[in-house]
Specification:
about 400 residues; about 10% strand; 5 strands; Outer membrane efflux proteins (OEP); alpha+beta
Length: about 400
C-alpha cells in the first residue's frame, strides 16, 4: 500500500461518513490543530529551533582593544603613546557550516515532535467525537424505550380493566420506566462531561455548542495484517535523532581543529624634537595572525565516545518502539475484527427482533402472551441496540488508532 493509497484510506477511516457529515469532524480537527495550546507550544519550539540555525551561523564577537602607555617607551622613531587593536576569531574552515547542519538537524527533530503531537491530538479528537456520538445515540435509544413504556402503560391499563393483565405487570413496567429514566440521566451527565473535555481539546469554552452526526455507517476498508511502520513519525523521530548525533560528531571533529585569529595593531608614536629623519614620529601598523590549538584533545575524544553510545541507545529505543507499535497494531486489529463481528451479529439480531415485535403485540392483544414476556423482549432489544452502538464506535475508534499507526 503506497503513501497515496494510505492517505485516502485515512480519509475513509477517520471521516468515513457522508460528506455533509464528515465536514463537521474535519472542522473540529482543524480547530484543535489551530487552537490547542500544547500544539501551539510545539510549534513555537520548532520556530525557536529554526532561529537557532541563524544564531550559530554568526562569527564570534569582534575584539577591540585600546591601551595607553602610562610610561611612554622610547624608540628610535619616537615615544609610543597608545595602542589600538582589532582581533577577529575565525573557526576552522567548515566549522560554521557544520554548526548550521547540526542546528538544522535539531530543528528537524522539533518538527517531528510537532508532527507527532498533531497526530496524537487528531486521534484524541476523533475518539472523543465518537464517544460523544455513542452517548447521544444511546440517549436517543433510551428515549425511544421510555416512549414505548409510556405508550404501553395505557395499553396495559386497558388489559387490566379487561382482566387480561395484573397490577404486578403495571408495577414491573413502572420499575422499568424508573430504570430507563435513571439510565438516561446517567448518560446526560456523562455527555456533559465529555462535551467539556472535547471543547477543552479545541481550547474553547466548556459549554460551547457541539454538532455530532446522527449516524455512522460502518466503513469497509482493507487493512494489512503486517503493516509497514517505517514512515510512522514516532520511528522517523529516532532516525532524525540518529542523524542529529551524526551531525554533532561531525561538528565535534571540526571543533577539535585549530581556531584562526586575524587582527591588526596600531601604535601611535610621537615625533622626536631633537632629531630630524624620515621616519620620525611614524605610527606603527602591525597585522597579526594567530592559531588557537587544542593540544589536549581528551575532551573531544570523550565527546566522540558519547556520540557513539548515543547512537547505539537510539537504535535500541527505535527497536523497542517498533515492538510497541506492532503490539498496538495487532491488538487494535483484533479489537476491530471483534467489533465488526459484533456489529454484524447485533444487526441481524435486531432485524429479527423488530420482525417479531408486531407478532408479540398481536399475541398479547389476543391474550395468548403474558405482558411480562413482551417487556423481556423489549429489554433484549435495548441490549442489542446499545451493543450495536458500542460496536460501531469501537470500529471507528480502532480505525482511527490504526490510521495513526500506519499513516505516514
Amino acid at each position: 500500500m503506497n503513501v497515496k493509497t494510505l492517505f485516502f484510506a485515512f480519509i475513509a477511516l477517520v471521516f468515513g461518513v457522508p460528506k455533509a457529515q464528515s465536514q463537521t469532524l474535519e472542522d473540529y480537527l482543524q480547530l484543535a490543530a489551530d487552537n490547542n495550546p500544547e500544539i501551539q507550544a510545539f510549534e513555537l519550539n520548532y520556530r525557536l529551533a529554526l532561529e537557532r540555525v541563524e544564531e550559530v551561523s554568526g562569527l564570534p564577537n569582534l575584539d577591540l582593544g585600546f591601551g595607553y602607555f602610562a610610561s611612554e617607551p622610547e624608540t628610535r622613531t619616537g615615544a609610543q603613546t597608545a595602542r589600538f587593536a582589532v582581533t577577529q576569531m575565525l573557526p576552522w574552515f567548515g566549522t560554521l557550516s557544520a554548526r548550521q547542519r547540526y542546528a538544522t538537524s535539531l530543528a528537524d527533530n522539533e518538527f517531528v515532535e510537532f508532527s507527532i503531537a498533531k497526530r496524537k491530538l487528531a486521534l484524541s479528537v476523533a475518539q472523543a467525537y465518537y464517544t460523544l456520538y455513542s452517548l447521544q445515540a444511546k440517549t436517543r435509544i433510551i428515549e425511544s424505550q421510555i416512549k414505548w413504556v409510556a405508550l404501553n402503560q395505557e395499553r396495559l391499563l386497558s388489559a387490566i380493566e379487561a382482566s387480561k393483565a395484573s397490577l404486578s405487570d403495571m408495577l414491573k413496567l413502572e420499575i422499568r420506566l424508573i430504570d430507563l429514566k435513571q439510565k438516561k440521566l446517567t448518560l446526560e451527565h456523562q455527555l456533559a462531561a465529555e462535551r467539556s473535555a472535547f471543547n477543552n481539546l479545541l481550547n474553547r469554552e466548556a459549554q460551547a455548542e457541539l454538532v455530532v452526526v446522527d449516524s455512522l455507517p460502518l466503513p469497509k476498508v482493507d487493512l494489512p495484517e503486517t503493516p509497514d511502520f517505517s514512515n510512522n513519525p514516532e520511528l522517523v523521530k529516532f532516525d532524525k535523532l540518529f542523524a542529529s548525533v551524526t551531525q554533532a560528531e561531525a561538528l565535534n571533529q571540526k571543533e577539535r581543529l585549530p581556531n584562526l585569529a586575524v587582527g591588526v595593531d596600531f601604535l601611535t608614536v610621537e615625533q622626536r624634537p631633537d632629531l630630524v629623519f624620515d621616519d620620525n614620529g611614524k605610527d606603527i601598523l602591525m597585522p597579526r595572525v594567530s592559531l588557537s590549538i587544542p593540544v589536549f584533545s581528551k575532551k573531544y575524544s570523550s565527546v566522540s565516545a558519547q556520540n557513539k553510545l548515543k547512537q547505539e541507545r537510539i537504535d535500541l529505543q527505535k527497536q523497542q518502539r517498533i515492538n510497541v507499535l506492532e503490539d498496538t497494531y495487532s491488538r487494535a486489529f483484533a479489537r476491530l475484527k471483534e467489533a465488526q463481528l459484533s456489529f454484524e451479529l447485533q444487526s441481524e439480531s435486531l432485524m429479527r427482533i423488530e420482525q417479531t415485535e408486531t407478532l408479540l403485540l398481536s399475541q398479547f392483544a389476543a391474550n395468548s402472551l403474558a405482558f411480562e414476556k413482551l417487556v423481556e423482549w423489549k429489554e433484549l432489544q435495548l441490549t442489542m441496540q446499545l451493543r450495536l452502538v458500542d460496536a460501531t464506535v469501537q470500529c471507528y475508534s480502532q480505525y482511527a488508532l490504526i490510521n495513526y499507526l500506519i499513516h505516514p
